[in-house]
Amino acid sequence: MSDIILEAVDLHKRFTRGGGLFAKATTIHAVNGVSLQVRRGETFAIVGESGCGKSTLARLLLRLIDPTEGSVIHEGQDLTMLGAGAMRALRSELQFIFQDPFSALNPRMSVETIIAEPLRLHTSLNAAERREKVAELMARVGLRPEMADRFPHEFSGGQRQRICIARALASGPKLVIGDEPVSALDVSVQAQIVNLLEDLKQEFGLTLVIIAHDLAVIRHMSDRIAVMYLGEVVELARTEDLFTAPRHPYTQALLAAIPVPVPGSAAGRKVLGGDIPSPANPPSGCKFHTRCPHATALCRTTRPVLDGKDHQVACHHHQTLPAPDLPLARASRRSPAAEARFALYRAASRDAELQIDTTHPNNPTNSKETTQ
Ligand SMILES: Nc1ncnc2c1ncn2[C@@H]1O[C@H](COP(=O)(O)OP(=O)(O)OP(=O)(O)O)[C@@H](O)[C@H]1O
């Protein structure tokens, strides 16, 4: 069995907007020549500023949308060549968790129907077996099975994301892509969901692809990270290598923008200068050159290729750049403070799992907001 579970090969996605009698159509190159490999069993993260193409790439990887060019290889099979029927059958193996757990759930369906849907589509379980499996899944994601008859609006954001996770797990997937799975949730709830995903990954032997802009969450969870800028991957490396020795000036700027509570580090955060250019009219050459302090004439004219083996970087000058001053690089991945924070969240998560439905304000017996 290959070590690679999913591979993007020179993926492109262009969106065309507008156009008509008096208006010119605008084309956005949302994903521009992305090639990457996701290894079996890893947590692979995709990060970058808003609009850089993360969600579009995630949707392409699961063929929720079709690429303009390029292919996606899953277990040796090109997903872009599959017909609708074959793709539907594969859906049990490839699941998606959306950012907004409310709009991802049909408000007219009970939780039981929502979680049982993939079981109905992808398994031969009868109604009683499906009910049993739904109860099992609910318990596993920290929801009380007695809540199965309720509807999504009766749950908090964290609980709704747990429902989405249970639904994603129902068909026994091998790979799950989470598009900002925690960013719509309260900070304390975010950690609970992060912890739950980590536990489920171990238990079910999943491969996770996580899209996020919260670098602290990413550092905590991921094994490798791809950094995107204006539709392109500019750096791809193991998490620790990326955080301690980022080579692309954009990654360096992203990391420098994170406030880190390291003793002796400068207070405050450095903010990346300049606006992100319009994806409808991207700069020539290296797309980052308009914001890069190290840009030269070469950068303005020639697009750098993603170069390297384990630590890949798309920058003409990465070998000669001065080492960045990153307080974050001096903080260990699991600094005592970070460890304590996550331990606390984990404990809170366990407590919350036990009392989930009794603490939510939508529960008629309660009026107190919960951390869920
Ligand atoms: N269906 C669409 N039609 C037209 N343009 C689109 C469509 N989907 C995405 N885009 C554009 O493609 C670019 C990349 O969008 P995408 O949502 O992939 O970025 P992102 O990095 O996920 O951003 P965010 O973090 O804000 O979700 C953006 O300029 C966006 O406006």
Automatic annotation (TrEMBL):
<dbReference type="Pfam" id="PF00005">
    <property type="entry name" value="ABC_tran"/>
</dbReference>
<protein>
    <submittedName>
        <fullName>ABC transporter ATP-binding protein</fullName>
    </submittedName>
</protein>
<dbReference type="InterPro" id="IPR013563">
    <property type="entry name" value="Oligopep_ABC_C"/>
</dbReference>
<dbReference type="InterPro" id="IPR027417">
    <property type="entry name" value="P-loop_NTPase"/>
</dbReference>
<keyword id="KW-0547">Nucleotide-binding</keyword>
<feature type="region of interest" description="Disordered">
    <location>
        <begin position="349"/>
        <end position="372"/>
    </location>
</feature>
<dbReference type="InterPro" id="IPR003439">
    <property type="entry name" value="ABC_transporter-like_ATP-bd"/>
</dbReference>
<dbReference type="Pfam" id="PF08352">
    <property type="entry name" value="oligo_HPY"/>
</dbReference>
<comment type="similarity">
    <text>Belongs to the ABC transporter superfamily.</text>
</comment>
<feature type="compositionally biased region" description="Polar residues">
    <location>
        <begin position="356"/>
        <end position="372"/>
    </location>
</feature>
<keyword id="KW-0067">ATP-binding</keyword>
<dbReference type="InterPro" id="IPR017871">
    <property type="entry name" value="ABC_transporter-like_CS"/>
</dbReference>
<feature type="domain" description="ABC transporter">
    <location>
        <begin position="6"/>
        <end position="255"/>
    </location>
</feature>
<dbReference type="GO" id="GO:0005524">
    <property type="term" value="F:ATP binding"/>
</dbReference>
<keyword id="KW-0813">Transport</keyword>
<dbReference type="InterPro" id="IPR050319">
    <property type="entry name" value="ABC_transp_ATP-bind"/>
</dbReference>
<dbReference type="InterPro" id="IPR003593">
    <property type="entry name" value="AAA+_ATPase"/>
</dbReference>
